[in-house]
Amino acid sequence: MAPDFVDIPIEYVKGIGPKRAEWLRSELGVATAGDLLEHLPFRYEDRSVFGSVAGIASDAVSIQLRGVIMGINQVPGKRGSRLVAKFQDETGTIDLVWFKGARWMASQIPVQQKVVVYGKPTKYQNRWNIPHPEIELEAQFEQRQGAGLQPVYRTTEKLTQRGLSSAGLAKSIRALLRHPEFRVDDRLPKAIQEELRFPSRTQAFYQVHAPQNAEQAEQGRRSLKFEELLLLQLKLLKQKQAQTQDVPGVRFAEVGDLFNCYYSEHIPFELTGAQKRVMREIRADLNTGWHMNRLLQGDVGSGKTMVALLTALLALDNGYQACVMAPTEILANQHFASFQDALKDLPVRVELLTGSVKTAQRRPILEGLQSGEVHLLIGTHALIEPGVQFKNLGLAIIDEQHRFGVAQRSKLWAKANPAPHVLVMTATPIPRTLAMTAYGDLDVSVIDEMPPGRKAIKTVHRTDEARLSVFQFMEDEIKRGRQVYVVYPLIEESATLDHKDLMDGYESLSRRFPLPEYRIGIVHGRMKPEAKDMEMERFVNGTSHIMVATTVIEVGVNVPNASVMVIESAERFGLAQLHQLRGRVGRGAEQSYCILMTGNELSKDGRRRLETMCRTNDGFELAEVDMELRGPGDLMGTQQSGVPDLKMADLMRDRELLTAARYIGNRILEEDAALESRENAILKAALKRAQQGRPNWSRIS
Ligand code: ADP
Ligand code: MG
Questions:
Q1: Are 604 and 571 in contact (CB under 8 A)?
Q2: What pLDDT does 435 receive?
């Protein structure tokens, strides 16, 4: 069988050849005819309008001219020679100039023939010229399909120097489309193509690369992107299938005494609508007989802990043990205290296991776990050590997920057979569409509603000049019985300088808020864990008024009496981090404040981040802005998760297509889980191709 057209190595494409093929591979990752076809234009220029040499009056826009190249000339200059071509139309003459790739260009310019020239005029020594224009024979231009809209392709300087400017790429792509054997196989089943009114894949490539009009280009582009996203979603959904439906799980069919008793007699508040919905989702999961693997997303303070507690009670009611794993000792302690308090009137034994639990205390806990007398274990990484063995672990809850990796999750799985259900909780506000993709193997539940009665945190931006009034404000709040965080950045590369800033800040605060009236604690990464915990403890129990810290306090700490968060050099933090830090206040009934301190000089992005923080408390809205500013690959919590690299679609801009692809993908698999039907055969083949071709699309961090 002849190889597929799309698999033709790029060097055999007309106008490319082996040398340029190598550059295409290294610069754009384009290795085959198919890759080149998938290199979509990022915009189009309207090439139906012509200007004239005499009419050139501005360097603001590109201009298209029709005329003849009279002659060419290499002109030596101080910084290397340049190529000058004299161009003439009916109204006058103008120089076309090349500073780079002059020699190669010289061999390409059609002299004394009718050409179309396109480029941006500039003025040099009071005369107009056009540097690095595109040139095409007029006959070719006329003949070209849809010469009205000219595709513009992303390229690089290196490629441009080798004749593969946007126009050069366009030429090669046109050659592909005109090739007598050009055809590409469809990847979408006919029924879906018709349902969505998409063109065939072959037609779609014509539409994007040689459109008759803008609507056509858009339709072709949407269909190609959709296809790419659908294949991605199918891959992820199948991955999930393999990890859930194919893995048996224990069935928690009962809602028993513990749950009911707690829910009707001890729960301190009414669940929010979102909490109730999430509980329904979890209960449905736990009753399928398959393994649950669920991500619970909820902004800081949205009440994830209560969901964890209720889910744990379900496990206990069904005769299984549960554990909660937190990323830091401080957090584990807090969870332990709040779970113990919540369950104090119920026959549940809760224990705490962290690195600092001494061997002597450890033994009874470990024994209790093995005998089943310990029902609920709270802890840190210490939980997954090999020595910790459960009688029958049915549920593992992981709090603040982004600190844990896949490897650790799988160690938890190994603690029981069948593997325990897993509930991963995170406050990292990942937009839902991205979460579906970045955490494709997990089901996602979202708490998108705050408990009632919360006062929104007031956020302001202040520069160093306002420091004295900020100090005064801190003093006022402390006098009213509140506590204050002051956070400094600590970035690896400038750790020594940052550490100095932190210490300087601590000292000037100590002068402004002297003993014995005020007590200031400090926590940073260079301290011993015990010292850190002690300082934290003093803040938690109200002994100290101000907590000076690096971002070590970012995650989960709950001190409801703290009402002010001052963030120093706030411009150096990302949005996700700022939001996490701000989430440390606003946890009590008091009005809380977040003060973002910066110098006067701010980058454009920096300013936008601060403005966004001041404008909204909504983590999901912040995440969207964050993604716009940084691109999805950089989103906190997804760095290592391998956000898929897509060639055509964009997770941010094409969210609506992504959602549609998710929906259709689900539907296809519901009807035909193994893609065995005749109409799905092409999808199955495409999926297989995609998997061979590309490494490791998506994996949770
Ligand atoms: P997070 O989602 O950040 O872990 P928590 O679970 O710590 O948030 O909850 C934050 C605070 O909100 C806690 O003090 C908790 O008791 C309270 N809370 C949670 N759910 C509700 C609710 N439905 N109504 C009122 N308060 C609630
Ligand atoms: Mg929490």
A1: no
A2: 65
Ligand 1 pocket member 271 (CB < 6 A)? yes
pLDDT > 50? residue 481: yes
CA 319 to ligand 2 center in whole angstroms: 26
Residues 204-214 have a mean pLDDT of 92
| Nearest ligand by distance to the CA of 555 | 2
Mean pLDDT, residues 112-139:
91
Sheet of 593-598, strands arranged across: 458-463, 593-598, 562-567, 483-487, 546-549, 520-523
pLDDT given for residue 145 in this prediction: 52
Task: Compute how many other C-beta atoms are within 10 angstroms of the C-beta atom of residue 283.
Answer: 16
Question: Residue 399 CA: which ligand is closest?
Answer: 2
Q: What is the pLDDT of residues 651-687, one digit of tens each?
A: 767 878 888 998 999 999 999 989 999 999 999 988 8
Q: Report the alpha-carbon distance of residue 563 to residue 550 in Å, rounded.
A: 18
Q: In this structure, which ligand is nearest to the CA of 332?
A: 2
- 421-426 and 293-298 as β-strands: parallel, antiparallel, unpaired? parallel
| pLDDT at 472 (0 to 100) | 97
User: Could you tell me the two tokens for 588?
Assistant: 């009590």
CA of 268 to the centre of ligand 1 (A): 10
Q: What percent of the chain shows pLDDT beyond 90?
A: 50
Res 181: pLDDT: 86
309 CA → ligand 2 middle, Å: 12
Q: Calculate how far, in angstroms, residue 450's C-alpha sits from the geometric centre of ligand 1.
A: 8
Q: Which atom of ligand 1 is nearest to the CA of 302?
A: 2
For residue 638, pLDDT beyond 60: no
Structure-block tokens of residue 519: 């007590």
Exposed e or buried b for every residue in 616-629, given b needs 16+ CB within 10 A? ebebeebbbbbbeb
d(CA 577, CA 630): 13
State whether the beta carbon of 269 lies less than 6 angstroms from ligand 1.
yes
DSSP-H helix ranges across 126-269: 138-143, 157-161, 166-178, 190-195, 201-209, 214-243, 257-261
pLDDT of residue 434: 65
Q: Is 298 in the pocket of ligand 1 (CB under 6 A)?
A: yes
Domains of the chain: 1-43+155-184 (no CATH), 48-147 (2.40.50.140), 257-286+302-426 (3.40.50.300), 458-616 (3.40.50.300)
Average pLDDT value for the chain: 86
Strand partners, 114: 68
**Quick one: residue 457, left, alpha or beta (phi over 0 = left, psi -120 to 50 = alpha)?**
beta
The token pair that represents 664 in the structure block: 């259709």
Q: How far is the CA of 355 from the centre of ligand 1 (A)?
A: 27
**Cβ–Cβ < 8 Å for 11, 25:** no
| Beta carbon of 192 within 6 Å of any ligand 1 atom | no
Of the listed ligands, the closest to the CA of 302 is 1
Q: Is the CB of 306 under 6 A from ligand 1?
A: yes
Residue 680 is given by DSSP the state: T
**More confident call, 407 vs 138:** 138
Cα of 336 vs centre of ligand 2, distance in Å, is 12
pLDDT at 642: 41
Could you count the other beta carbons within 10 Å of the beta carbon of residue 228?
22
Residue 427 Cβ < 6 Å to ligand 1: yes
